Amino acid sequence: xxxxxxxxxxxxxxxxxxxxxxxxxxxxxxxxxxxxxxxxxxxxxxxxxxxxxxxxxxxxxxxxxxxxxxxxxxxxxxxxxxxxxxxxxxxxxxxxxxxxxxxxxxxxxxxxxxxxxxxxxxxxxxxxxxxxxxxxxxxxxxxxxxxxxxxxxxxxxxxxxxxxxxxxxxxxxxxxxxxxxxxxxxxxxxxxxxxxxxxxxxxxxxxxxxxxxxxxxxxxxxxxxxxxxxxxxxxxxxxxxxxxxxxxxxxxxxxxxxxxxxxxxxxxxxxxxxxxxxxxxxxxxxxxxxxxxxxxxxxxxxxxxxxxxxxxxxxxxxxxxxxxxxxxxxxxxxxxxxxxxxxxxxxxxxxxxxxxxxxxxxxxxxxxxxxxxxxxxxxxxxxxx
Length: 385
What we know:
385 residues, 2 domains
């Protein structure tokens, strides 16, 4: 009977303890689930807005609006940068075209200046050539005039010398004639005087005539010698005149050839100076090809900011609750088992309060390898007591 009371008390105590323990744990599970649900709701509303509104809100909406504003700022900045780059390219194009026109204008000025200088140089060369030709004309005229004067003077000298030789010849002839006349007169006088005296007149006359003939022969010989000398002098003078005339003609020909060579050299110098002047003319300027016109820069395409949809509200956490009555039953069974174990130890295994020698029921003690039917069935029991 005592074993029954012990078993019943322990079963009742263990059952009540299991009942109250299960209720306490259920309350803890409910509070934990409530706090978890509240935290999930606050997190959801912080990220996506109110759980009761279908519109997107919270950090997701702020991030979406921030990204949209950032995309608009990026578009405006890129557009300003592209417009600035296009304006810069247009400015460079205008500047390049201006430089192109300026360089072409400078090239034209240089070309016109080179042409003007070449024409001025050519005009100067022409004036220099004309002046040189005038000097050459004066020089050849002076040379020919000097030769003409020399030739005329030579002719005058020849004429005077020839006249002198002729005069000398006439003087010799006159002297010979006078002397011959004087000889004849003297012979006549001597002959007349001899005849007047008488005596050997014939012999005296012959002597006088022989003397007169000898003197006449001498006069004739002298006249002949003088005539030959004059002829030779006249011949020499004639030959000298011919030689001088050939020399003057040669000098005139040499002067003409020298004049022609000088004029040819002047023409060559004029041509060389003109070539140098014309070589100084710059090439006819040609304007450079125009610069390529700047093209409009391509505009980038932008991907619109993705607007996220509002996700489903978070699922509420469901607390894992225990069945208090099952926990009470499990506690009661364990209590009964403990009571039976205690009773067996007190009364030697008599389960009926002085029972006979029958074999008693084996009650497993806690800590052994034998489990109760409730535990074997999967009931958790009250493990906290």
